[in-house]
Amino acid sequence: MATPSRGRAELITGVLAAATSIAWMLLPGPLPEQMVRAALVFATVTFVGLTLVSRLSFTHRSLLALGVAVAGIALLFGLLGWSWDEVTWWVRSRTSYATRLAVSGLRVAARAEDSPALGQQFDAWIATSSDIASSFFPALVALEMFLGMALATTLYHRISRAPRGKPLGRLREFRFSEHLGWLAVIPLVIVLLPRLAVLKLAASNLLLVTGALYALRGIAVAVAGAALAGSGPLTAVFAVVTGFFLLPVVLGGAVLLGVLDAGVDLRRRWTQPPASD
Questions:
Q1: Pairwise CA distance, residues 87 & 216, whole Å
Q2: More confident residue, 124 or 242
Q3: Contact 151, 58 (CB under 8 A)
Q4: Is the pLDDT of residue 276 over 80?
């Protein structure tokens, strides 16, 4: 619905999306659900507005939309007296319930084998996962919104006759401004300094989001390098399988590769011909 010449498919899609969004916003729910809905409104309005009036890349439009959503939610917390403790309690309770339901069969087997140690390990794992989910709830929501904006942009450019704004682009071309590095440096300093404990939660969430973006950039560099090397589908399958079993190592390497690419632009160096003497 954001294009000047709308076709039938665009009009139907826009009407259905708007009606579904309004109905979803009007549903009652606990504070965390209301917070997520409000964040989606802030981010969506900002993202659509930037798509209509600017030539920014998808990455920069989405990051600005997330920034506006964060500012809007912070304002609502102050104006409406929302409690962050209520949000974390709700997320921890829901995560604990869902995790216990998912591993209920394993817990029953542990009881049948009369293995209290295994049951205690399950309880400790559930408590840890619930604490992580509640602590990093804002970052996880932000990453989900980033993915949602990417899917929406892809669909929009596929069904629209005259789409506005830059398309998503290929994964191998994913990049962002080097100034984003300050969004990693500043929260990292806050996390490491003991006297800034009050800001550690917000800094940790921001660090997780920026780390995910640098990991995605590192994966883009790896994909671009594999394409230049002429790797085939078997190599891609092997890389995916290896990444699944060595996920922490792969993610750490992807973050480092993304940071390196932000500093020296590896893809540009690979594609530029060597300077002649």
A1: 29
A2: 124
A3: no
A4: no
The residue among 244, 252, 267 whose CA lies nearest residue 211 is 252
Q: The domain containing residue 111 runs over which residues?
A: 1-169
Whether the Cβ atoms of residue 170 and residue 183 lie closer than 8 Å to each other: no
Could you tell me if 219 and 254 are in contact, meaning their C-beta atoms sit under 8 angstroms apart? yes
Of 169, 187, 211, which residue sits at a domain end? 169
Those residues with Cβ within 8 angstroms of residue 68's Cβ, 6 or more apart along the chain or in another chain: 42, 43, 46
Run of H or E including 111: helix 104-112
pTM over cut 0.90? no
The answer to whether 68 and 41 have CB atoms below 8 angstroms apart is no
- In this structure, the answer to whether residues 29 and 158 fall within a common structural domain is yes
Average pLDDT of span 63-87: 88
Say if residue 257's pLDDT is above 90.
Answer: no
Angstrom CA distances, 212 to 50, 114, 217, 219, stand at: 23, 41, 9, 10
Between CA 152 and CA 168 the distance in angstroms is: 10
Computed on alpha carbons and rounded to an integer, the radius of gyration of the chain in Å comes to 22
For the chain, give the longest Cα–Cα distance.
76
Choose the final residue of a domain: 169, 202, 225: 169
